[in-house]
Amino acid sequence: MDRIDKKILSFINKSLPISERPFLALAEALGMSEEEVLDRIRKLKDSGLIRRIGATINPRTIGWQSTLCATVVPMDHIEEFAEFVGRYGEVTHNYLREGHLNCWFTLIAPSSDRISEIISETERALNIKILNLPARKVFKIKVALEIE
Length: 148
Description:
By secondary structure, the protein is α+β, with helices and mostly antiparallel strands. Helices cover about 40% and strands about 15% of the residues. It has a 4-stranded antiparallel β-sheet with strand order 2-3-1-4, with helices on one face. Helix 2 (about 20-30) packs across helix 3. The longest helix has 15 residues, at about 110-125.
């Protein structure tokens, strides 16, 4: 990943415009062609540095449910866990943390039944117990990472 890739990631993370051709604005800001920007983004996506580019929607405003989940996964099974949980489109974040509860992920789904279904399937498949922590109160903070 070079300096230009880092600039692209920073731009996408904090100021991608809502327009018919948002990557054209990025290309113009960087003095590049739109095709070159799109090619670099494809390569970043193929490499796994970009998982998705899309809007962030408050699930409650569309009647959906969300929850934070935590579990204990032995270190030699972390990859298996991440791969299994990552198969669900409803998983928005999946990360490793220090401490007893070392694997955390968030779910956004159309219903609490679907959330329960995903949790149950994961528990059965991986022989683990998942702590389901639905939010009582939602706090939204803007996270804009400076990649450079």
